[in-house]
Amino acid sequence: MRTALVIGTGLIGTSAALALAGRGVVVHLRDHDPERARTAAAIGAGTDEPPDGPVDLVIVAVPPAHVATALADAMRAGSARGYLDVASVKGGPRRELEALGLDLTSYIGTHPMSGKERSGPLAGSADLFEGRPWVLTPTRDTDTEVLNLALELVALCRAVPVVMDADAHDRAVALVSHTPQLLSSMVAARLQEADETAVRLCGQGIRDVTRIAASDPRMWVDILSANPGPVADVLSGVAADLDETVRALRALQSADESKRQGGVEGIEDVLRRGNAGRARVPGKHGAGPAAYEIVAVLISDRPGELARIFADAGRAGVNIEDVRIEHATGQQAGLVQLMVEPSAVTILTASLRERGWSIRQ
């Protein structure tokens, strides 16, 4: 791949363009808002000048509702050897293209499973896709050259290719991406009118659950509008669990011991099923979540403190598998939770204490 045209310079389009430009591909940028394309060009994602002729690959990075139109325009203009989109929904756009009577041998639907709460070209990053799954949805009609171009794009972005059927992909993202976004927003919405004393008690748990609720509502309306059926199916199951959980909680208020016991069993059931589901979420290097232990260290909010604690862990010969920071409300301090192998806990704890760190249980 020597040349590419990216249509749509939001987060995903700009990030892909930055990755390609950084690896020597000549990238042309186009957006319905020319200012966004100029912004992407200014940060090194390519040029907002149109290509002189056909490019190797057109990458359409527009909202799902506009994917088919943008692809059709590019294909009818003979803009490239191959065409792909990066929308988060795959079945709908392909069916729209088929209905337009286009030859789809030069097209493949794709979806990089990566993103941020921020949007727009300035949120773009060349390493956004690194190590992340990038779904490809070829059909028997897809030309081998186009599949190879898509695989080259994934490799240049340092992502991991995953081949799926388009409709199976849409059902999967409804479960692992679209429904979590709605549930996060629903929980965060409870905070909108909450008493200030309650909000001040927010800890890491509520921050984790509501992190993606900061996403752009307009973008998510576009995504959910393109995949409403599968998302509604997943939410229907969640709603059934919610109904059962509400009944179980009400039963815990009963004076009848048998009803209270039924409530306990209902709550325990959903929590245990949650444990089982969480255990299936891939962890480090794609393996199942490891049983790491946490070493919690009090840390002050000063420049260089994180670097120092990581360096001290390295001196102890301990690999930090993961890290979280729990900030203390109203204080210039917090807890750094260092996730390590169980066998490393004693060594790390002793070593950090020797170097003056305050360890918390």
UniProtKB/TrEMBL annotation:
Keywords: Amino-acid biosynthesis, Aromatic amino acid biosynthesis, NAD, Oxidoreductase, Tyrosine biosynthesis. Pfam families: PDH_C, PDH_N. The keyword Transcription does not apply. GO terms for molecular function: prephenate dehydrogenase (NAD+) activity. InterPro entries: 6-PGluconate_DH-like_C_sf, ACT-like_dom_sf, ACT_dom, NAD(P)-bd_dom_sf, PDH_C, PDH_N, Preph/Arog_dehydrog, Prephen_DH. Residues 2-289 form the Prephenate/arogenate dehydrogenase domain. Its EC number is 1.3.1.12. The keyword NAD applies. Residues 294-361 form the ACT domain. It catalyses: prephenate + NAD(+) = 3-(4-hydroxyphenyl)pyruvate + CO2 + NADH. Transmembrane segments: none annotated. SUPFAM superfamilies: 6-phosphogluconate dehydrogenase C-terminal domain-like, ACT-like, NAD(P)-binding Rossmann-fold domains. Pathway: Amino-acid biosynthesis; L-tyrosine biosynthesis; (4-hydroxyphenyl)pyruvate from prephenate (NAD(+) route): step 1/1. Belongs to the prephenate/arogenate dehydrogenase family. This is Prephenate dehydrogenase. It comes from Streptomyces albipurpureus.
